[in-house]
C-alpha cells in the first residue's frame, strides 16, 4: 500500500522535530502502522530555512493553501499556532476532506466547537494529542483509557515554563522576576512569556481536558485563570515548612453538589499548595504531570516532558499513526473528538469562581499585640470556615509585627473572599492578605 | 442501535467490579461509546453467588461454553485466569467469532503467540489492558500513545503485593517473612503468594510489555525472574543510606550493542536499587507505576492502582468500549494486538542474564583486618568493574568483622558473577556476598 502522505504547515521547533522523528523511526513506525507515513509537502513562510531542514525529496512551498489543495495529501499537520490564519487553514483543510493533526491548544480551547462540528460534517478526524502535555499521551488516556469512569477531577502541571520557574524559586529561594529572567536566558521562557506566566496556556489545556473528562463543550471563556506573577518566595518557604509545595495547576472538577443540586464543573488555573509527599508535588523543572481521579480506577498519574521539539513530535506522530490505522473505521464509530459522542455533550455549567470549593492558605501581616488572633479567628468562625493549621511566627527582634499563616479546611470561595475582606479591614492587619488555594489531591 | 452484548466468564473480584461499574456508569459509557454495553450472560461455577451479584435480567449459567455458543453475544470477557480451561475457552470464543477481553497475563505471556494468531485468522480482537498494571492504561500508551518512538527501555512496579511488602519492610524495618504474614492478613497477599513474591506475576506483565515495546513475540520462558523472598531489612537500610530504595522492577531494555552488535533485549524481574529521588522510588504500598523511555518522548511515567476490583474493571471496560468503537474498522487497520503488525515482529533475541548490563550493590561481611579492602578492590579492578561508591562500617564494639558496601558502575553480569565468586573465595570474606542490581533510570 502506498504511504500515507502528510502535509506540514509550519516547520518551527515542533515541525522540524516531527520531520526528524518520522524520518529516523520510519521503519519502526511502518511496522506499527502497517503503512508508511511520509511528510511529502511542507509550507513555511521561510522557504529557505524549511528547505534546509527537510532536504531533497520533500516539496517546500510558502503558501499553506497549496498543501491543502494537493489531492495527494491525506493528512494536514497544523503547527502554525494562534487563532488567526491557523483557524482558517484548519477549516479549509477540513473542507477539503483532509484529516488534521494540530498542537494548537489555543485554537481548540476557543474555537473547538466550530472546528469539531466542521470535521464531523466532512467525516474527517481532528487529532490533538500534542495540544496538552507534550509527549504524554493524556488525551488518549482521557478519551480512551478511562472510558469506564465518571471522572471526578483532574489536576495537572501542564505548563513547563511556570513549573521550571516555581522549581527554581523554591530551590534557590529567589523571587519570581529574577527567575523569569534566568528562564528566558535558558530558553525555558519566551521573550514574551505572558501566556505562560499568566496561566493562559495552562487554561487552554485545562479547558480541553475538562471537555474530554466531563462531556461538556470547550469553554475557555468560563475558565478562571491566575498565573504565578504575584507569587513570593516567602509563601513558597512557608508552604514548605507546612509540608506543601506550590504548583501552578490546571484543575477541572465535577461538583454534583453545586448549582442548587443540578451540578457544575470547576475549571480553574492558579498557584496551588499541594502536599509535598504527593508524586505531583515532586514533578520538577519543565516536566509535566496530570492526575486523573476516576470513580472506578481511583487516582492515576501521567508524567513526562510537556514541551520541546521531539516530545511534542512524539504526540503529533502518534496522531498520524492513529489516523492511518483508523481512517477506514466507520466515522460514527471512531473515537469522538471530545471523548463523548458529539450529540451527547451536556450543558453542565462551569461554576463561577465564587462557587468553587477549596482549602486556603492565608498569610496575614499583623501587629504583634494581644487579641489579634482572636479577632481573626472569630471572623473565620463566623464565616463557618474551619482552621486546619495555624502558624504564628515570633516577631523578629525589634519588630512589633509578625506573620500569621492559616490553613483552612475546604470552604466556598465566595465565603472566603468575604472573610478576607473583613480581616483586611482590621486595624491590626498591616498589609494585604495573601491567599492561595490548597488541594489535598487525595 | 441495540447495545453490544457481553458474556462474562468468571465473576470473582474483577468480574463483579466490571459488572458493577458497567451498570453504575452505563449512561456515561454509552455517551462515550455511542452505544450501550451490557453484560447479558454470566458463566460461573458458583451459579448461586453469581446470581446474587448480577440480580435479575442477566442470564447466569454454570457452563462457559453456553456463553460462547450464544449467537447474541458480541464480546466474551475471560476472567477465569490460569493456563488451563481459560486457554481453551479463549480459543473457542475466538473460533466462534467473538471478540475477547481478558485480564489473564499468565495466559497471554505464555500462549499469546497462538492466541493472537487465532484471533487474526478469525478477524477478531483480543484486548488485554487489564492484564498489566490494573487500571493504568499502559497497554494503550505503549501500543498507541508512543508509536513515534523507538522505545529504549521500560521499568515498572507491576506487582502491588511485593511493592506493599517492600514499602512495609522499609517503613518499619521488618524482615520479609514478618511483613508477608501481615500482607496476607490484610488481603494484600494471597494464601499462596508464590506467583507474586517470586516475581512470576511481574514477569508475565514485563513479557507482555516487552513485546509491545520492541515488536518481538511474547517469550516468558526467556525472562529472568527473581522475587523478593531473599531480601533482608539490612540491605533496604543500607540502600536508603546511600540514597536508594529497593523496588521489585520488571525491566525490558533494548541493547543495540549486545549479541555481537546484532542487538538483543533484556527481559528481567528482580529487586532493584533505584535513586530515592526518582518518582518511581516514591510509589508506595500496593500502587503500580511504569516508566517508559522513548527516543523522541524521553521519560514518561504512568501511575495508578495495579489491582483490585474496580481499578481492574476500569481497564476491562475500556477494552469493551474500544471494541465497540472499532469493530467496524477494516481488521487490517485495527491496532495490532502486540502494537506491531503481526508479520512485522522481529526475532531479536532475549539476552541471557549473564549478558545483561547493570550496576550492582554488593554487601560483603568481612574480617576487620588490614588488606581486606585491597584484596576486594583488586579483584574488581582486574574484572574491569569500576566502583561508584564504597561504604565501610566501623566494627561494632567487641566484633572483629564488619560490612563493606560497594556500588559499582554498569558492568556485564557475567563478569560480576565471576568477580563475586573470586571475592567469595577470599578467607577474609566471612559470609555469602549479597548482590543486588541497581538502575539509575535516568
From TrEMBL, chains A, B:
Source organism per UniProt: Sphaerotilus microaerophilus
Keywords recorded for this protein, A-Z: Amino-acid biosynthesis, Methionine biosynthesis, NADP, Oxidoreductase, Threonine biosynthesis
Record-stated family: Belongs to the homoserine dehydrogenase family.
Name of encoding gene: hom
Pfam families the UniProt entry points to: ACT, Homoserine_dh, NAD_binding_3
Database matches in CDD domains: ACT_HSDH-Hom
Name the UniProt record assigns to this protein: Homoserine dehydrogenase
E.C. no: 1.1.1.3
Organism lineage: Bacteria, Pseudomonadati, Pseudomonadota, Betaproteobacteria, Burkholderiales
Occurrences of domain ACT (ranges): 361-437
Pathway involvement of the protein, from the record: Amino-acid biosynthesis; L-methionine biosynthesis via de novo pathway; L-homoserine from L-aspartate: step 3/3; Amino-acid biosynthesis; L-threonine biosynthesis; L-threonine from L-aspartate: step 3/5
Amino acid at each position: 500500500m502506498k504511504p500515507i502522505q502528510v502535509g506540514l504547515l509550519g516547520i518551527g521547533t515542533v515541525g522540524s522535530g516531527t520531520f526528524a522523528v518520522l524520518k529516523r523511526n520510519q521503519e519502526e513506525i511502518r511496522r506499527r502502522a502497517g503503512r508508511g507515513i511520509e511528510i511529502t509537502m511542507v509550507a513555511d513562510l521561510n522557504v529557505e530555512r524549511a528547505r534546509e531542514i527537510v532536504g531533497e525529496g520533500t516539496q517546500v512551498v510558502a503558501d499553506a493553501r497549496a498543501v491543502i489543495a494537493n489531492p495527494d495529501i491525506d493528512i494536514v499537520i497544523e503547527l502554525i499556532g494562534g487563532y488567526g490564519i491557523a483557524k482558517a487553514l484548519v477549516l479549509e483543510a477540513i473542507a477539503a476532506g483532509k484529516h488534521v493533526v494540530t498542537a494548537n491548544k489555543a485554537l481548540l480551547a476557543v474555537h473547538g466547537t466550530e472546528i469539531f462540528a466542521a470535521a464531523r460534517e466532512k467525516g474527517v478526524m481532528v487529532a490533538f494529542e500534542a495540544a496538552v502535555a507534550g509527549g504524554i499521551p493524556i488525551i488518549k488516556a482521557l478519551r480512551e483509557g478511562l472510558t469506564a469512569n465518571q471522572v471526578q477531577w483532574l489536576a495537572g502541571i501542564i505548563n513547563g515554563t511556570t513549573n521550571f520557574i516555581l522549581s527554581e524559586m523554591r530551590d534557590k529561594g529567589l523571587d519570581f522576576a529574577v527567575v523569569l529572567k534566568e528562564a528566558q536566558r535558558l530558553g525555558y521562557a519566551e521573550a514574551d512569556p505572558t501566556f505562560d506566566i499568566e496561566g493562559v496556556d495552562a487554561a487552554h489545556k485545562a479547558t480541553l481536558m475538562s471537555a474530554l473528562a466531563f462531556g461538556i463543550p470547550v469553554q475557555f471563556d468560563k475558565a478562571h485563570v491566575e498565573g504565578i506573577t504575584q507569587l513570593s518566595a516567602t509563601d513558597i518557604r512557608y508552604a514548605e515548612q507546612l509540608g506543601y509545595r506550590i504548583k501552578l495547576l490546571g484543575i477541572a472538577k465535577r461538583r454534583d453538589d453545586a448549582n442548587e443540586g443540578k451540578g457544575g464543573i470547576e475549571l480553574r488555573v492558579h498557584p496551588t499548595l499541594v502536599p509535598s509527599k504527593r508524586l505531583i508535588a515532586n514533578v520538577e523543572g519543565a516536566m509535566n504531570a496530570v492526575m486523573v481521579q476516576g470513580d472506578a480506577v481511583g487516582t492515576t498519574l501521567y508524567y513526562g516532558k510537556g514541551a520541546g521539539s521531539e516530545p511534542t513530535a512524539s504526540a503529533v506522530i502518534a496522531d498520524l499513526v492513529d489516523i492511518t490505522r483508523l481512517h477506514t473505521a466507520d466515522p460514527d464509530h471512531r473515537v469522538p473528538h471530545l471523548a463523548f459522542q458529539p450529540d451527547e455533550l451536556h450543558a453542565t455549567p462551569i461554576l463561577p469562581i465564587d462557587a468553587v470549593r477549596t482549602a486556603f492558605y492565608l498569610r496575614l501581616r499583623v501587629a504583634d499585640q494581644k487579641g489579634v488572633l482572636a479577632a481573626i479567628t472569630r471572623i473565620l468562625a463566623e464565616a463557618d470556615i474551619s482552621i486546619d493549621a495555624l502558624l504564628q511566627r515570633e516577631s523578629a527582634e525589634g519588630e512589633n509585627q509578625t506573620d500569621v499563616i492559616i490553613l483552612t479546611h475546604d470552604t466556598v470561595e465566595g465565603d472566603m473572599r468575604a472573610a478576607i475582606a473583613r480581616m483586611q479591614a482590621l486595624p491590626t492587619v498591616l498589609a494585604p492578605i495573601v491567599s492561595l488555594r490548597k488541594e489535598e489531591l487525595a
